Fold this sequence. Notes:
Layout: E1 3-8, H1 12-24, E2 28-34, H2 38-48, E3 51-53, H3 56-60, E4 67-70, H4 74-86, E5 90-93, H5 101-114, E6 118-120, H6 128-138, E7 145-153, H7 172-175, H8 179-195, E8 199-207, E9 219-226, E10 231-237, E11 248-252, E12 255-259, E13 267-271, E14 276-279, H9 297-306, H10 315-334, E15 338-339
Parallel strand pairs: 1-2, 1-4, 2-3, 4-5, 5-6, 7-10
Antiparallel strand pairs: 7-11, 8-9, 8-15, 9-10, 11-12, 12-13, 13-14
Helix pairs in contact: 4-5, 5-10, 6-8, 8-10
Amino acid sequence: MSLKIAVIGCGSIAKNRHLPEYAANEHAAITAVCDIVQERAEEAAATYQAKAYTDYKELLKQDDIDAVSVCLPNYLHAPVSVDALNAGKHVLCEKPMATSAEEADQMIEAANQSGKKLMIGHNQRFVSSHQKAKDLIASGAIGKVYSFRTTFGHGGPEGWSADGKESWFFKKDEAFIGAMGDLGVHKADLIRYVLQDEFAEVGAFVETSAKEDADVDDNATLILKSEKGTIGTLAASWAYTAKEDNSTVIYGEKATLRLEDDPTYSLVAQYANGETVKYELGGIQSNDEGGQTTTHVIDHFIESIQNDTTPLIDGEEGKKSLAIILGALESVETKRIYSLEK
């Protein structure tokens, strides 16, 4: 049985990820698309033989839609997801899931009430090197984890967003946060997943230094301490002008793991006894040419609906990753280390 899919928001993430990945999935059929820019909606509709809408509320009234992807500016993630869940649709929402803990709670509540799936698009969990590192750590192969550094940076959304320099990404009232929401929240989710640990405290420095017309952060560095006592740094930036950096290094008692840090080997394990193991796994998804295959996010979402299983990144998981970023903002405001609530 094919699930009938609607994509709300036809910007770059929809165009490059959601729409082609739904089209490639034999269990999904794109039946409707929506964008407030009519030409964008019509272009996507023509490409995928779908019906075009400019008002998402009209789209949600349709009975023949099973699930929706919410690919909108950050400030619309929660309200549109809640409306879609209340309309009885499963929801895959782009990250960050919301702009506050209250909004995240509303989304979780709507999913619980409707009995529909809510998944947040944190695609880093599906990267082979990240999954392999998680398994190595869980097996005890690297011993106690002492520290880590994780970073995600590129030249900024103007090279990637549908609106370029005019993009909502740079506007605080629509984006809420900048590089931290665009990239940092991915790494917050990743490091929680790979270490299988939650974070207790966060301190942060956040700057707008690279983008002249932006009123959101474009460089952020977080210091994190986990419940198990592991400390590390998380950097998010729109100022890595020469080349994207999407790497993570985990320092353990018996080994150091380098993830997406070597151009050939997506995971390199350097053991304290002098041994080095190089894993040539599938590369990470990037927005560069040739980087597009599948992020596995769409396939996992479809599977969780068909098999009635909980998505790997449900609302609760999305909220915990968002909490780290919200905590970083609190740390910046108060110039203190912020304790994350249990």
